[in-house]
Amino acid sequence: MGTHRLLARCLADRAPSLSEDPGRETVRLTGHGCRQYAADREWLAPLERLAERMRAAGGDGFRAIRVATWCEKREQSVASIREMVRKVSRDGGRALLIPARTTGTGPAEELLPDMDFALGEGFVSHPLFEDWLHAQVQTAFARYREEGRGRLGASLMDSE
């Protein structure tokens, strides 16, 4: 999905709707990830960039915004997220899990059934989703043209 500022804004807007006391809450931005360690690590850099953009888009009032993936060595990943939820809860805080995905909530409820956390959902229902999608299409066509295969892209871009 990338790290587009509109995506970050959509994700940042999810957190306040789940929030009760931002200064005591930790947002965990979760991504799908991959089963291979190296590929999973590649998911973390974009998630970190999204977290930075979420802070800049109004998420800086939360205690913290952290990132994690669900897939790489699933047991370790789930254990890490469980520990974060426990730790945040122990000191009177609350965990807000925000999935970096277009639809749905991801596996949080299934993998953390006995944990207390608030869960966001994908950003397809956000009012900025259409703007984000339009920007993605524009970017794809621009890249297509730059690579010299732009006839189709140019004709589609010129039509309304």
Task: Describe it.
The protein is α/β, with parallel strands linked by helices and 160 residues long. The chain has helices at 5-18, 37-56, 74-90, 108-111, 129-146, 150-158, and strands at residues 25-31, 64-69, 94-99, 118-119. The chain has a 4-stranded parallel beta sheet with strand order 2-1-3-4, with helices on both faces. Helix 1 crosses helix 2 and helix 5 (129-146) packs across helix 6. Residues 153-160 have low confidence and may be disordered.
Compact description:
Helices cover 51% and strands 13% of the residues. With 160 residues, it is an alpha/beta fold.
Q: What topology does this entry show?
A:
Layout: H1 5-18, E1 25-31, H2 37-56, E2 64-69, H3 74-90, E3 94-99, H4 108-111, E4 118-119, H5 129-146, H6 150-158
Parallel strand pairs: 1-2, 1-3, 3-4
Helix pairs in contact: 1-2, 5-6
Describe the structure using short key phrases.
160 residues, 4-stranded parallel β-sheet, 6 helices, disordered C terminus
Order of helices and strands: HEHEHEHEHH
Measured between the Cα atoms of the first and last residue, the distance is: 25 Å
Unreliable spans: 153-160
Kindly report the average pLDDT value.
82
Q: Into which percent range does the helicity of residues fall?
A: 40-55%
Q: How many DSSP helices?
A: 6
